[in-house]
Amino acid sequence: MSVLDVVLGRPLSTSEERAEQIGPAKGIPVFGLDALGSAAYGPEAALTLLAPLGLAGLNFIVPLSISIIVLLVIVYLSYRQTIAAYPSGGGSYIVARRNLGTFAGLLAASALLLDYALAAAVGISTGIGALTSAVPALHAHTLMLCLMALVLLTIVNLRGVSESGGAFLIPTYLFLGCMAMALALGLAKTVASGGHPMPVVKPPAAHATAAFSVWLVVKAYASGCTALTGVEAVSNGVSAFREDRIKNARRTLGLIILALGLMLAGIAVLVKVYGIVATDPNRYGYQSILSMLFAAVAGRGWFYYVALFSVLVLLTLSANTAFADFPRVCRFVAEDGFLPTAFANRGRRLVYSEGICVLAVLTAALLIGFGGITDRLIPLFAVGAFLSFTMSQAGMVVHWRREGGKGARQSMLLNMAGAIVTGLTVAVVVAAKFTEGAWITIFALPALLATMYGVRRHYEKLHREIALSTPLEAHLPSSPILVVTMQAWTRVNKQALRVAMTLSREIKVVHVSEDDKPNDFRDRWEEYVEGPAREANLPVPQLVTLHSPYRLVVTPIVEYVKRLAEENADRRIITVIPELIERRWFQWLLHTQRAQILKGRLLMEGNDRISVLNIPWYPKST
Questions:
Q1: Is residue 202 part of a domain?
Q2: CA–CA separation, 59 and 277 (whole Å)
Q3: One domain, residues 513 and 604
């Protein structure tokens, strides 16, 4: 078994795809971790902005949460319709492209891809933030811990959808269980105490440092809306569910939305009654909202640490939703020719490996660029999510108008209301967060759109150039000129020359002579090659010696081949490159790799009449 099989698992055949499909039990860990995890960083993002108001700021968290939950329900109803209307998946991109046109579809796809890249970074950084909240000594190592979590997530997702769902099953339901127990206990104590429960561990004292302003509340709402990110994931990955796909996908989405809505409502009520105000994540001794909430409700006993551990793991793994959906969106866009076709190819474990790897690189760049601190990433976060919501809702309005049928009018009105509400939310988020980093997303969207259109133009131009509708010509081209590179007379080079002599009668052996080195090969050319070939009535290769006063070997050969191609405009030039292939990877470091460099330069600098023929030779004694 190879190392790759151990790390990523054995390759799966296409016929094994059915076994990789999932139901609601695994669907929640695969597609719901981002949405569920946003219950932690969404309320915290809002409370962080309300913190300057002190305890007075808590008066706004319940109304803000109610408005966010109402928006959540509208988005849920819309995506429930999307799943039924487009069971092949694709979510916002497919809905917008088919109903609003190519530009709208690509805009939705760009927003989704940016959202997923940010979601992965925010999820990991929030999870590590929960860890450093419990163990403050680790705060200095935040970035390193984030990158380690990223590597783990990448490997698990490269192993396949079913395996990632199974791996995250226990952490997901442990988190949901701990949250249910904490919220139920806190609400029970609140009811029993008449709305004024005594915290087991008092949260840090809060002091007002700013006066109330409407703009502050608007900014808090904009940050709190990040709690909705990830709810579109199920609609993008409907094809991952086993039959009945629509039923299983809808059930999964419904369970995710129900759990998220209950958590948002419970957290909002309990932070108000317990007087929990957000602390500065950049200062030593930072505690997350959930850390303070668990301590206030149940104290710092075993349940506190189990619950905090479940939050830590789930938030870190919440990036898994991005890893599940980012490659799928890339696949749909690539199939339409707006991204490299490699994104549409499934890897050894029936997942879109290229998309997973690209997301890992983007996430690493974000984590490194922002130091792994969540609040620095939040301002960039919600724009892409709500823009894709808006495009999807608007697309569904057109869909119902075109398709008609029973209930179409009611569905169209619902989607229209959703498009208006989410569109207004986009405007609020952009206005509130523009100077804090949302401008990056605003400028990144046109850049990504331009890239997609550039990819499409390239493919269209290439297709026009290589397309052919005529049959094969009856006459063959002139025989090629073969150029064999040779620095010494060895078994490796002799094998390459013998192969060349079977392909053409015009062979040029190119030898680069360095002024400061003896040249036994050139002196004995007659003995080694010319004489034996003439005696056997074989084509006699011509020795071409190139002088290199600057000790370069590759460059003189490349220039000679290009010059030869210019002088023989009607013939193909085949450069035969002998190459010694070591069987152990570390032995590769012992050689100059001139053959690889020469191949690369000839392919990059040549033309369609310059070909490269590699003749490998494997040592028998190593």
A1: yes
A2: 11
A3: yes
CA 84 to chain centroid, in Å, comes to: 27
User: What backbone phi and psi angles, to 5 degrees, belong to 507?
Assistant: -125, 135
Question: pTM, whole model, 2 decimals?
Answer: 0.80
Residues 212 and 359 in one domain: yes
Q: By the 8 A CB rule, do 50 and 218 touch?
A: no
For residue 30, give its domain range. 3-460
**The pair of three-digit structure tokens given for residue 442, joined into one six-digit string:** 């605003």
The parts of the chain modelled with pLDDT lower than 50 are none
The H or E element that residue 220 is part of is helix 214-224
pLDDT score of 591: 80
Rounded CA-CA distance 583/616 in Å is 12
User: The CATH number of the domain where 608 resides is what?
Assistant: 3.40.50.620
Sign of dihedral through CA atoms 484, 489, 492, 495? positive
- In this predicted structure, what is the pLDDT of residue 379? 60
Same domain, 305 and 380: yes
Are residues 389 and 488 located together in one domain of the fold? Answer: no
Place of tokens 């299983």: 248
Same domain, 381 and 443: yes
**To 10 degrees, the CA torsion angle through 381, 383, 384, 386?**
120
d(CA 281, CA 129): 8
Residue 246: CB atoms within 10 A of its CB come to 16
Alpha-carbon distances of 323 from 60, 160, 360, 372, 602, rounded to whole Å: 34, 11, 8, 18, 38
